[in-house]
Automatic annotation (TrEMBL):
Keywords, ordered alphabetically: Acetylation, Coiled coil, Cytoplasm, Endoplasmic reticulum, Isopeptide bond, Phosphoprotein, Repeat, Ribonucleoprotein, Signal recognition particle, TPR repeat, Ubl conjugation
Matches recorded under Pfam families: SRP72, SRP_TPR_like, TPR_8
Protein name: Signal recognition particle subunit SRP72
Skewed-composition ranges (Basic residues): 558-568, 660-676
Organism of origin: Eubucco bourcierii (red-headed barbet)
Length: 676
């Protein structure tokens, strides 16, 4: 019996080997199960069963077999298979622990380790792992490792804004070209990235067209991800119409990559914004597909959730918007955008004070975001019409007080409120900040930076514009001191002194260049006849003898304007003499005879409502020779003869006494207020 069992096991092992070589793992699994019935703790048979299950895609069952036979299948024996099952089941943290706990790090484990690190977005460790693999391995998978290495560099450039280093990889495949383009997008080099993607598309078509079994649909499906990145670049460049067209073309192909579909749908939603919300509602369903969370990075998923919250706000789904933004805030408490979305929703509900309070609470808890929060609060105050309060909030942002943009905004707002003193104070504080900064940088020297000088000039112009010439003098003197050859500044300074200290103005006027040095070679005639001249000299024409005498005799007489010919009516006939009384009103013309009365007298109903002059016997339908049925038969139509003498009721002349009716109407005209 033992010999028979051994012979059967040998035959089964031969079957397993043959099926494995042929790739028929389902049949091999049946043979392995028969072997395990003979010897349930056979380590090799258990390993083969796990491999067959993995090849058939049954990762859960394979992991169950491993966990059930932990005594036999130790971590040293089955570490790779276990980690791979956990990786495919998206249990990435467990897979990492399994790999790290293995006593021996084989090449297979190192390859899987790099994939796990990439999924965990630990790009620095992942880059080091792939470099080590490329350095210490030589086989037919070297091209795939280089592709993975370039993908890590592209992810660093895109998500961590790390300047990618030149790896010296030869971009011979479309995958390498695509990853290189992604790295360039992360650096903001959009034109170069577009060229790389075009090259990747060309290489992809060439490589796939060599296979006779690949159809054009297969090629387009493979190119979908490249076209998606092209559309993204167009969107970043502001070519939204082209980007939207390309996005929709990709969606029509119905690619199987749920991650690609989710990204494209999200980008379309960002193009639509608060317009075309019904299309956005359809597209947002693509972002909820199963498995999307395992295909995209954390930042991509976060951006999709942000856009869902904004879409809920734009579609007036207040509760949904609050729910999504609160969930985002709990996931990322330090992130500013969820709070801004909540504040925007409150503003849509006219709860501005509550929105400002929400922003203030967040600013107190997260001082790093104070500037952004206060800018938003100032915008809300402006929306409420509280410009002065908005200015106070802006001036409390210390790190932005001296920025030219902030100074310009504050001065404009104070000018709108006619608070000139506060506007000048803003200029003064900014100028003092630059003076202190320059002194600290130059160790006591006093050179002026271009921004500093620009602020001084703007302050001087502002003061001159609002009549503060005394205050403008010090600024103008500082500017002239920095550049004594600046004639414009000197002229402004003389103008300011002329009202304050005329003697000083005379002294300074001596520094103005002489008229000889300022004379320019200008062709006056050409200047006056130029396109931009407000006055153009007319060229004098030659006058004949008669015309010249007329010009001399009528030099003081004004020229008479020619009268325009009046427009004639469309039905004007020159042969017919026009009516001489046509300018008079119709009632005043000699041939007017007044309105013709009684024209429709016969048609006006007289007498009581419904009464007629004709006898009732003439209208009795039962007394006519041929009376039609009261109701037509089913399927037949009641016909009325065209020559019938019977008059319908509304066309009959009503009977009544006209004289009596007329008297009644006269009585109503005299005193009655009532009517129908």
């Amino acid at each position: 019996a033992a010999a028979g069992g051994a012979g059967a096991a040998a035959a089964l092992w031969s079957e397993v080997n043959r099926c494995g070589q042929n790739g028929d793992f389902a049949r091999a699994l049946k043979s392995v199960n028969k072997i395990l019935q003979i010897s349930k703790d056979d380590v090799t048979a258990l390993q083969c069963k796990v491999v067959c299950l993995i090849q058939n895609g049954n990762f859960k069952e394979a992991l169950s077999v491993i966990n059930t036979h932990t005594k036999v299948l130790t971590s040293d024996v089955i570490a790779f298979e276990k980690a791979y099952c956990e990786y495919r089941l998206n249990r990435i943290e467990n897979a990492l622990k399994t790999i790290q706990s293995a006593s021996q790090q084989t090449d297979k484990l190192k390859e899987l380790y790099g994939q796990v690190l990439y999924r965990l977005e630990r790009y620095d460790d992942c880059l080091a792992a792939y470099r080590d693999l490329i350095r210490n391995s030589q086989d037919e998978y070297e091209e795939e490792r280089k592709t993975n290495l370039s993908a890590v560099v592209a992810a660093q450039s895109t998500w961590e804004k790390v300047m990618p280093e030149d790896l010296g990889l030869r971009e011979a495949t479309y995958e390498l070209c695509y990853n290189s383009a992604c790295a360039l997008i992360g650096q903001g080099k959009l034109n170069e990235a577009m060229k790389k993607l075009q090259k990747a598309e060309e290489l992809c078509r060439q490589s796939l067209s060599e296979d006779s079994d690949v159809t054009e649909e297969d090629i387009e499906a493979e190119l979908a991800i490249i076209h998606g990145q092209m559309a993204y670049i167009m969107q970043l460049q502001g070519r939204t119409e082209d980007a939207l067209q390309l996005y929709n073309q990709i969606i029509k192909l119905k690619p199987t990559d749920v991650g690609l579909l989710a990204v494209i749908a999200n980008n379309i939603i960002t193009i639509n914004k608060d317009q075309n919300v019904f299309d956005s509602k359809k597209k947002v369903k693509l972002t909820n597909a199963e498995g999307v969370e395992h295909k995209l990075s954390k930042k991509q998923l976060q951006a999709i959730e942000f856009n869902k919250a904004l879409l809920a706000m734009y579609t007036n789904q207040a509760d949904q918007c609050r729910k999504l933004s609160a969930s985002l805030q709990s996931q990322s408490p330090e992130h500013l955008l969820p709070v801004l979305i909540q504040a925007a929703q409150l503003c849509r509900e006219k709860q501005h004070a509550k929105a400002v309070g929400l922003l203030q609470d967040f600013a107190d808890q997260h001082p790093a975001n104070t500037a952004e929060i206060k800018l938003t609060m100032a915008q809300l105050k402006i929306a409420q019409g509280s410009v002065t309060k908005a200015c106070m909030i802006l001036r409390s942002i210390e790190e932005l007080q001296h920025k030219p943009g902030m100074v310009s905004a504050l001065v404009t707002m104070y000018s709108h409120e006619e608070d000139i003193d506060s506007a000048i104070e803003v200029f003064t504080q900014a100028i003092q900040w630059y003076q202190q900064f320059q002194a600290s940088q130059t160790r006591g020297a006093n050179p002026k930076s271009p921004v500093h000088l620009s602020l001084i000039r703007e302050a001087a112009n502002f003061k001159l514009k609002h009549g503060r010439k005394k205050e403008a003098i010090s600024d103008l003197e500082e500017l002239w001191k920095q550049n004594p050859k600046d004639v414009h500044t000197l002229a402004q300074l003389i103008s300011a002194y002329s009202l304050v200290d005329p003697e000083k103005a005379k002294v300074l006027s001596k520094h103005l260049p002489s008229s000889d040095t300022m004379s320019l070679k200008v062709d006056v005639d050409a200047l006056e006849n130029s396109h931009g001249a407000t006055y153009v000299r007319k060229k004098a024409g030659k006058l004949t003898g008669d015309n010249q005498q007329k010009e001399q005799g009528q030099g003081d007489v004004k020229k008479k304007k020619k009268k325009k010919k009046g427009k004639l009516p469309k039905n004007y006939d020159p042969k017919v003499t026009p009516d001489p009384e046509r300018w008079l009103p119709m009632r005043e013309r000699s041939y007017y005879r007044g309105r013709k009365k009684g024209k429709k007298k016969d048609q006006v109903g007289k007498g009581t409502q419904g009464s007629t002059t004709t006898g009732s016997s003439e209208l009795d339908a039962s007394k006519t020779a041929s009376s039609p049925p009261t109701s037509p038969r089913p399927g037949s139509a009641a016909t009325v003869s065209a020559t019938s003498n019977v008059i319908p009721p509304r066309h009959q002349k009503p009977a009544g006494a006209p004289a009596t009716k007329k008297k009644q109407q006269q009585k109503k005209k005299k005193g009655a207020k009532g009517g129908w």
